[in-house]
Structures
1.
Amino acid sequence: MGLLEGQRGIVFGIANDRSIACHIANAFAKEGATCAFPHLPGEKSERRVRKALDGAEIVDPFLIPCDVSNDDELDATFVAIREKFDSIDFLVHSVAFADRTYLKPGVFADTPRDVFAQALDISAYSLVSMARRAKEMMPRGGSIMGMTYYGSDKAVPGYNVMGVAKAALEACTRYLALELGEKGIRVNTISAGPIKTLSSMAVGGIDEIFKWVEQKAPLHRNIEGGEVGKTAVYLASDLSSGVTGENIFVDSGYNIVGL
Ligand code: NAP
């Protein structure tokens, strides 16, 4: 029997088969979970997600269009999922966006107000707005998790406004964990090392970061998406029943190195 046998939940953030959310969906399916997959509206987006899930061998996936910066779309998404699943056990937030013009070394001080606000809205506030809706569908408690990166705490050249958004995401996680704990809902983040995806390739200087991790991390290699998937299974399952408000690094140990 799988670790998530009979569990149902929502995985936001599949763009293609490289997406961290797709690795998580794959790992959850192997452990017996059933997921709904909200994606940005549009036929092209739906086709990409369907193709990614074909590779993950998920039969008849439940896809719903949803721009997470739009409250009406979020409402409609959660209503549709409630009709299908009644209740849920987990929610995965694997969504981020910032205008790539401002994701390169040397331009952080130039970040315009609207670019800053949009990055924070899509990449951090959306966790709060999802949790507000998800808690109503978690009568037995549940697990909510977001994806973050080392650039939340350290100034990584080029990560810029996304680092600020990740700091906000991690703080939102702690406040949500504090508030939702009495309902048995746990809220955590996974801090993944760099992985080649559409989002990470938008960060200027990312190839240098991959090389640097290989040289400096204790494991002397970059991580694979499946390793984030396995940690997500741990966080969704009873194995982590006493863990909330935490940030778990899956980064070959890079974050512990001081020199
Ligand atoms: P990805 O495949 O590009 O996934 C990002 C997802 O966010 C895409 O599915 C994208 O949809 C979606 N998205 C953006 N704006 C949205 C909106 N307004 N409404 C709904 N969905 C929206 O990249 P990823 O690397 O897997 O990123 C997943 C998460 O992991 C992000 O939070 C990222 O910051 C985090 N992370 C990534 C790395 C890494 O190195 N890859 C490391 C640490 C943390 P479209 O593609 O359709 O626009």
2.
Amino acid sequence: MGGVESQTLEYVCDKTKSTRHAILIDPADQTPDTAAKRAVAAVAAGSKMVLVGGSSDTDMDNVNDTVVAIQEALELVTWASSQDSSLEEKTWKVPVVLFPQGAAALSPAADAITFMMLMNSKSPRYLIEEQVAGSLFIKKAGISPLPMGYIICEPGGKAGEVGQADLILSNQTERISAYATTAEYYGFKIIYLEAGSGAQTPVSSELIKAARDSCNLTIVVGGGIRDGETAKIASDAGADWVITGNLTESFDDANALQNTLTEFISKMND
Ligand code: 1GP
């Protein structure tokens, strides 16, 4: 792996940072233009990464159009801030990372990809087959792979259904410890504890704590987190990253989204 390729991994796994926020943009739910406006508003609020993906209805076209629109919008504001000494240029330099449904929904314009094994899937397709199918595309495009164990917890939502996950129940702390340890032994750098997009209840703090105590990996938590207080519970339990998808998509007005996310991030790190 070359220097440029590993930069995003170092950035994502930087242990000196307090819990960071990332938004998830689902190309199946919004136009590229809307996605780009939401990404700029989120980064202005302090989000540190933009994930692009979804568990259904994404393909090469809508994923690529969305990634390109977000990259162009962030480049434009970076350029604008470089022309204005009162604005900090580096604030805008956040990675745009694929969070893919599978090998058929990728974009060469992304900085990196969560190269993941859905560890508690019952299907070989999500354990290894999609990864093999996408690997050479990723290599050729020069997208940085972020080695990640993806673990779906109850209620699991669409990701759990599509991925045929044997869900981790909220009190199965020993089981999540075993998955976290396995992820570390496999050499993954990140684990993503997922409750499913739109989940009524997020991943329990018991599960996050048990994972935190079992490994030194970067822990990403998402699914059903809609406010800063809930994000703080995840942060206190040991999450390095908190992801929100639906929260971002509920806003059409970029200023309102920016204000809401600014408050969210401030409460999360309170
Ligand atoms: C889904 O964890 C993410 O993969 C985000 O979930 O849409 O509920 O924020 P929400």
